[in-house]
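EI: anyone free to look at a 358-residue chain?
SC: sure, send it
EI:
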Amino acid sequence: MATLPTNRQEAWRWTDLAALSAAAASEPTEAPGADGYWLGLPGARIVFVDGAYVAHLSTPGHVAVSRLTLDTAHPLGVQASGADGWSIDLSAAEVVEPVQIVHVATGGENHVPARLTLDEDAVASVVETYVGSGWTNRLTQIDLERGARLMRSVRLLQSGGFVSIRDEAVVGEGASLVSQFLGAGGMGSRIDALLTLDGDSAFVDYGGALLTREDQRQECAVAVRHAALNGSSRQTWRAVAADRSQASLAARVEVARGAQKTDGEQSLRGLLLQRTATVNLKPELEIFADDVKCAHGATVGELDARALFYLRSRGVSEARAKALLTTAFVADAIDRIGDETVREAFRADADAWLDAAL
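SC: here you go
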């Protein structure tokens, strides 16, 4: 394992690097099957086990699997570059169905790079699911040309270990990137992204929900850079922390000097199910243009006592009342997923986490 960052570095102060190191050194365990994690969607299906492509379990369609060397300076991303990975390169003339990828980990460390290139007006949808245990490290680079649209949904369901995701995207004129995440497993995690709106009227919607319990720690660290006119971005993140766990949300919007008419919004909210849990929020705005509309909100609290009392007075059990209110809290992020099948799968994953946590 290459040299890792340390918690003394500001950008990594909340990352559970001890859990990452322990996951990387963990002994092999039995691999969970991928069959139970497919959604009822048509299209390509790809399976990676410990970073290795499993051909007999996959139907790749238009997805290419090959060794990928990606240019990145990210300290975890560089470890994935140069390994076998997957790529999609689409033109507008190619009408393709959704791509599903299941990443299975059995212990130790595994690294997979990915590259998604959508030409002018091309459209793609990708659903990724992470299961098993170990250190799962991913680097994904995205290039969206004029008018291209990418919808991406990511489920972090590993029972243990650590999942680190690094996304680097360039979004061109009139293109849109919509990515939603759900951390509902028992692993530690870090969702790390640098997203650049590089064309006029580019759009990014990047967010999700992190659900933590016991001694678990999950975090996101996302930077959105507005480098062109009329860009719009939305970052909607929700964190729910139970027991002694910690969830951390860091979101930054950077507006370059020439990026006039930018519209950027951040919404970071945390919910503590017990006062022994911790939610850290860090919204940031860095603006060098003078004709912009940027806003951020950050709140941490507990379940509304009056709402709990109302539900209890109507005969709802305490556990069920807490589950209903927590589900409504998380729905702010999950309901942003456009595909109904994917959205319902995320809701089911969140409900399963609540059943275990409450």
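EI: The mean pLDDT is 95.
SC: 👍
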